[in-house]
Design goal:
The protein has 102 residues and is an alpha+beta fold. It has a five-stranded mixed sheet. The protein is 37% helix and 27% strand. The protein has one domain: YaeB-like fold (2-Layer Sandwich), CATH 3.30.2310. It is globular.
């Protein structure tokens, strides 16, 4: 009986929508990427609205940010569960994205 209640709760919380926001710097990075990459990035961002931490997401070493792979590019983002917001900080090639100091 308790399992059924927990399952129903999990389904209900899974359907909660998050708002995905891009920092200005992430928008500028998207402007210089090829259209095919931008299209794939936006498909991944759509998934974050319903599942802010998909299975293939990795939590970064600092413990606050998450990383999502899109081919050779990486999306770095933060999740605020209280506000139901996903903030995209960076979208860059994998060779450059981790070099920045936050």
């Amino acid at each position: 009986m308790i399992i059924a209640r927990n399952a129903a709760f999990a389904i209900k919380t899974h359907n909660a929508l998050y708002t995905v926001a891009l920092k200005h710097s992430a928008e500028k990075q998207l402007d210089i990427l090829p259209d095919s990459v931008v299209e794939r990035v936006f498909k991944r961002l759509e998934v974050l609205k319903t599942t802010p931490r998909p299975h293939e997401t990795k939590k970064l070493a600092d413990g606050e940010l998450f990383r999502l792979r899109v081919g050779n590019y990486r999306i770095l983002y933060d999740v605020d569960d209280r506000e139901k917001t996903v903030v995209v900080l960076d979208v860059e090639h994998r060779s450059n994205v981790y070099r920045k100091k936050r």
